[in-house]
Structures are given as structure tokens and as C-alpha cells.
Write a structure and sequence with these properties.
This protein has 3 domains: 34 residues; 208 residues, P-loop containing nucleotide triphosphate hydrolases (Rossmann fold); 175 residues, Ribosomal Protein S5, domain 2 (2-Layer Sandwich). It is globular and about 75 Å long. The protein contains 11 helices and 21 strands. A hairpin with a 2-residue loop joins strand 13 and strand 14. Strands 6-5-7-8-4-9-10-11-12 form a 9-stranded mixed β-sheet, sandwiched between helices. Strands 15-16-14-13-17-20-21 form a 7-stranded mixed β-sheet. Strands 2-1-3 form a 3-stranded antiparallel β-sheet, with no helix packed on it. The chain is of the alpha/beta class and 453 residues long. The termini are far apart.
Length: 453
């Protein structure tokens, strides 16, 4: 009988070695190697081919248009790309206490009330705790089955027996497989348990939702391969002190990535925000310098958000740069462009930039709004309240065109803005909607002159 062998597996990247290391040779993480015993010996013989699929011409494959199943929570369905896909696997991550379990229980409760059977499996809470939350959310239904279980094999067998129309696992780090000796939450357990459940879900065409813990770096805990195994990866973002939460898709095989849904956290659960632009601009100060409205695109949705900047003389030798909601390096780059191309001295000033409302903006079109807010606060001149801007700034100080300019202008006109500063190249090919005035500029200096002169 072959002897069992011992391997040491990194809990960060999943690499394995025959001996223990204080630092992982692959990802250089310290104290991440965990011992695991595996049966020895080599498997001999050929793999049986009976019952397996055979290669076939792609033209002979059935229709590829997947059928969608609406959950009933419009913002959730939007982020998923139009609803759940039978057999689709969704990984939901977020900070502790942000509301992942609340979101899924509320969504699945509404789905169950429409007559669909849902299985909610929790390894962290008892069924009584789940019921208390469901009562508060108004998600009680006879079709919503709750279960406290952590053994992957038992869950897979029960799912095959019940055949629910949706399955939720909260969370994947609590699962363990009887085929492995390692503890729950380890890389091998997370990978094996997830693969087993994903296989069952795809075989039975059951939408699967996996809740994942988040590390201190903001990434979903466990092996990176977990994000490659699932079809959709969602992040539930927001600050615990703020009432607004953002559900963001960072991967979606069946829809648009970077799609977002906006929710408001209330005592009775999450409330959908139908017009996020109006919410994000509701508390915008009037006549204050350093505030500028940006027309941004997130997935398929157009959002108007407020970019704020504070520029003050540095009291110490090294000026501070603090950024919230946009890329830190982008602010440094735009500050350098302003000094070189617009003669704005910022090297001896502290710079603070923030996107109001807790939202994060990653697209290049935010460049012009950052520049305008910085100059506004530096000159202590308020941006006229009827102006909205967008555009990418190059290192030569030029403004470059951005995608979907029409959608941005249409959203701004709907919220009552009268003027829009945008790159000249973005003016080509579309008609002016409504009464809004479009002002095309080619450089940041030209754009600043249009606003402040």
C-alpha cells in the first residue's frame, strides 16, 4: 500500500512544495504554507469513455442564447446582465458587515415569494438567526428553504435531491470536503468545495451564488483560481458609516463587466436607488469652490457624480496627496500636467481629492473633472452650477474624446444642466439633445478659460 505524502500548500496563491518554507517561493507571502497529507501512489489504467461527451462540430451545437430568470430586484438583475442564468455561478464578495447576506436573503426571499424554490445554506449562522433577519427584511416564504450545513458532499447530495431553482452558499470559506484533511477555509478546501458545487449546479442548471470573504487587501479570500472558476464576480462596496451601497460586477461571462447597482441601507433592508445621479448630487454645496460635476459611465449606466478637491499651502516640507474614489497616481499625473501646461503651481500645496457619495470612478473621462475641481479650489472660484464636464486629459494638455458622449449629455440635460464642457472630438456625429449647450474644447487651458473667464 502506497504511503501518504506530505505537501505544504500556500494559502495565498495555492502553490505546493515538498518542504515547508517561511516565505512562499511563488507569491512571497510569509507564514502562508500549511501542511496537508495526500494519498500516495499513481493511478494506473485508462479512463473509461462510456457516457462522456464526444467532440462535435460547432455548427451542430444547439442555440447559444441563454435563458434569463429575473430575480425581481431590478438593480441586482441589472448587475447580473439581465437576470440569473441557469447553471451560472456567481461569486459575491465584500467587507465584513457590508450587507452581502442581507442582499442575497432579500433577493432570494422575493424570488421565493413568486413561487420559486430556493435553498439558502449558511455555515456561519443558525437557521433561527436567518429567520430573524428574514422577518426584518420581509422575506418569509414557504418556498425559501434554509439549512445550516458545511459538508460539501452532504450539500451536493441534498441539492441533487431537492432540485431548487436557486442555491445560495453563505459562505464558501466555511465549507469542507471529507476527501481532504485540511481545515475549512484553506486553499485546497475552498477550491475543492467550490468545484464540487459548481459541477452540480451546471449539471442541474441551478443558479449558484457563493458568498466570499474579503482579505485586508480588498480581494476575495482563497485561491485566485476561484474567480476563474465562476461565471460572474460581484463586489458589494460601501462604507459602514454611509447608507449607500454599490454592487459592482468585475467579471461577467453573460453580461457587461463594471456594471453597477446602487442601494440604500435602511432598517428594513436594502432599498433600490432608481436615479443615482440625483442622489449623489442632492447635497452638492452651492457657490463652493473645488466642486465639479462629472458625467460618468459605469457599465451601461450613466451617472452624474460630484468630484471635490481641496488645495491648501503645505505646512510641512513634503506636500500631502490624499485621494478617495479615484486613482491616486492619476491625480499626481494631472497635477503635473496642470503645472506644465496651465501654469498652475501645485508643487507646494497639499492636495485632497474625493468623489462624493462613496462611489469609485475608474474611467479616463474623469480627468477633466479632477482638473477643473483642483483649479477651482486653487483660484477659489466656484464652477457655475449649470456646468457638467467630462473628457480624458493627455500629457500634452490635450483633451481626448471618450465613448458614449451622447448618453452623458442626455443624462446631464435630464437633470437640468445647461452647459457641457467636453472634448471637441466627442462632438462629432450626434445631435444636441434638448436645450443644453455643448462647448467643445481641445486643451485643458481652453476648457479652464471657458469656465472661469
Amino acid at each position: 500500500m502506497a504511503k501518504a505524502r506530505t505537501l505544504y500548500i500556500c494559502q495565498s496563491c495555492g502553490s505546493s512544495t515538498a518542504q515547508w518554507h517561511g516565505k512562499c517561493p511563488e507569491c512571497s507571502q510569509w507564514n502562508s504554507m500549511v501542511e496537508q497529507r495526500r494519498p500516495g501512489g499513481k493511478q494506473k489504467g485508462l479512463v473509461a469513455l462510456e457516457g462522456r461527451q464526444v467532440p462535435m462540430a460547432i455548427t451542430a451545437v444547439g442555440g447559444g442564447a441563454e435563458s434569463r430568470v429575473l430575480i425581481g430586484l431590478a438593480e441586482f438583475d441589472r448587475v447580473l446582465g439581465g437576470g440569473m442564468v441557469p447553471g451560472g455561478c456567481v461569486l459575491v464578495g465584500g467587507d465584513p458587515g457590508i450587507g452581502k447576506s442581507t442582499l442575497l436573503l432579500q433577493a432570494m426571499g422575493g424570488f421565493a415569494k413568486d413561487g420559486h424554490k430556493v435553498l439558502y445554506v449558511s455555515g456561519e449562522e443558525s437557521v433561527r438567526q436567518i429567520k430573524l433577519r428574514a422577518e426584518r427584511l420581509g422575506a418569509l416564504s414557504e418556498n425559501l428553504l434554509v439549512w445550516g450545513e458545511t459538508c460539501t458532499e452532504v450539500i451536493a447530495a441534498r441539492v441533487a435531491e431537492l432540485r431548487p431553482e436557486a442555491l445560495v452558499i453563505d459562505s464558501v470559506q466555511t465549507l469542507h470536503s471529507e476527501t481532504l484533511d485540511s481545515s475549512a477555509g484553506s486553499v485546497s478546501q475552498v477550491r475543492e468545495s467550490s468545484m464540487r458545487l459548481i459541477t452540480v449546479a451546471k449539471a442541474l442548471d441551478i443558479p449558484l451564488f457563493l458568498v466570499g470573504h474579503v482579505t485586508k487587501d480588498g480581494a476575495i479570500a482563497g485561491p485566485r483560481v476561484l474567480e476563474h472558476m465562476v461565471d460572474t464576480v460581484l463586489y458589494f462596496e460601501g462604507e459602514s458609516v454611509h447608507i449607500y451601497r454599490i454592487l459592482r460586477a468585475v467579471k461577467n461571462r453573460y453580461g457587461s463587466a463594471m456594471e453597477i447597482g446602487v442601494f440604500e441601507m435602511q432598517e428594513s433592508g436594502l432599498r433600490q436607488v432608481d436615479n443615482p445621479s440625483e442622489v449623489f448630487l442632492a447635497e452638492r454645496p452651492e457657490g463652493a469652490s473645488g466642486s465639479c460635476v462629472l458625467a460618468s459611465i459605469e457599465g451601461t449606466r450613466t451617472l452624474l457624480v460630484e468630484v471635490q478637491a481641496l488645495v491648501s499651502p503645505a505646512l510641512f516640507g513634503v506636500p500631502r496627496r490624499t485621494v478617495v474614489g479615484v486613482d491616486y497616481n492619476k491625480v499626481l499625473l494631472l497635477s503635473a500636467v496642470l503645472e506644465k501646461k496651465a501654469a498652475m503651481i501645485l508643487a507646494n500645496h497639499d492636495i485632497f481629492v474625493k468623489v462624493a457619495g462613496g462611489i469609485k470612478i475608474n474611467e479616463p473621462a474623469a480627468d477633466l473633472a479632477i482638473v477643473v475641481s483642483l483649479v477651482s479650489n486653487l483660484l477659489d472660484k466656484a464652477v457655475p452650477p449649470d456646468i457638467v464636464v467630462f473628457g480624458e486629459v493627455g500629457l500634452a494638455g490635450e483633451l481626448r474624446g471618450v465613448m458614449r458622449a451622447e448618453s452623458r449629455v442626455r443624462e446631464a440635460e435630464k437633470l437640468g444642466f445647461k452647459r457641457c464642457i467636453l472634448p471637441s472630438d466627442s462632438l462629432k456625429g450626434f445631435k444636441v439633445p434638448g436645450d443644453i449647450e455643448l462647448i467643445g474644447v481641445s486643451t485643458i487651458k481652453e476648457g479652464l478659460d471657458k469656465i472661469f473667464n
